[in-house]
Specification:
The chain is an all-alpha fold and about 270 residues long. The protein has two domains: about 100 residues; about 140 residues, no CATH class. It has nine helices and two strands; from the N terminus they run H-H-H-H-H-H-E-E-H-H-H. It has a two-stranded antiparallel sheet with strand order 1-2.
């Protein structure tokens, strides 16, 4: 526990610098590094399960997709790239003349969709107008829910949420995390965020986002637990003592990034 606390005291201020820097590139570079490492962790977990992903090809294509977003290639170009990469994976299996290698396609492609495709939304949001505020919202509402659910569940949890996947999670913890997230969303509306950043109904939008990102963030955490239980490991890696790997730290944010992006882009203007 002491090691975990010490690491948190070191990591949080450094991470805050990357988020609040007026220059977006420190955060973008950090995100690319984190996504690449998380993707590598998933590939290693799959190898422990006996699967054989094309690691180098997957990692290289992940870097290509990040570059495509940074350079601002259009959506059609990026989608075409994903299609061509899938064709390339099938070609590799065909040339191997071994139909059993078909599983290598899924073991390579699915982690890319999970890590790289969803992580792209965080990069894209940071490059948008008010980008640092969107990233602040993403991680604040993700981490506050996670911390709130942990402490409420630890103190009052009696009913398990889905013990087959994550034995430590409780229904009471989830509900408590949502309530705390809503309270924090209201506080930041009147303390830090620019007025009407989400339009005239900014407060309403923030409350909705606090609830929405609590749910999808929890799904992200459980999704990572599914992968780890499938592969028979406790943590995605041992990179951080007592804290696990990079995927263990960003699993909730991975699910929340596309949800927040879509909400900002298409929903917040409705009312």
């Amino acid at each position: 526990m002491k090691t975990r606390l010490l690491l948190s005291l070191i990591i949080i201020p450094i991470f805050a610098f990357f988020i609040f820097s007026s220059w977006p590139w420190p955060f973008v570079c950090l995100t690319i590094a984190a996504l690449s490492w998380a993707l590598y962790e998933v590939y290693i977990m799959f190898e422990k399960k006996g699967l054989k992903p094309y690691k180098i090809a997957g990692l290289a294509y992940g870097l290509f997709t990040y570059a495509a977003v940074i350079i601002n290639f259009n959506c059609g170009f990026i989608v075409t790239g994903w299609a061509l990469f899938l064709i390339g994976l099938f070609t590799a299996v065909i040339l191997s003349r071994n139909p059993d290698n078909f599983t290598r396609i899924g073991a390579t492609y699915l982690p890319l969709l999970y890590i790289s495709a969803m992580g792209l939304f965080a990069i894209h949001m940071r490059l948008m107008e008010n980008g640092k505020y969107w990233i602040f919202l993403l991680f604040l509402l993700t981490l506050v829910y996670d911390g709130g659910a942990y402490f409420v569940g630890y103190s009052f949890g009696r009913h398990k949420l889905i013990p087959e996947i994550s034995p430590g999670k409780s229904i009471e913890g989830c509900l408590g995390g949502v309530v705390i997230n809503v309270i924090v969303a209201v506080i930041i509306k009147f303390t830090y965020l620019p007025q009407n950043i989400l339009g005239p109904s900014t407060l309403t939008h923030l409350i909705i986002l606090a609830v929405l990102l609590s749910v999808t963030g929890q799904l992200g955490d459980l999704g990572a637990s599914v992968i780890k239980r499938f592969c028979g490991v406790k943590n995605s890696s041992n990179l951080l003592p007592e804290m696990g790997g990079v995927l263990d730290k960003i699993d909730s944010a991975l699910f929340n990034a596309p949800i927040l992006f879509l909400y900002i882009k298409y929903v917040s203007g409705w009312f």
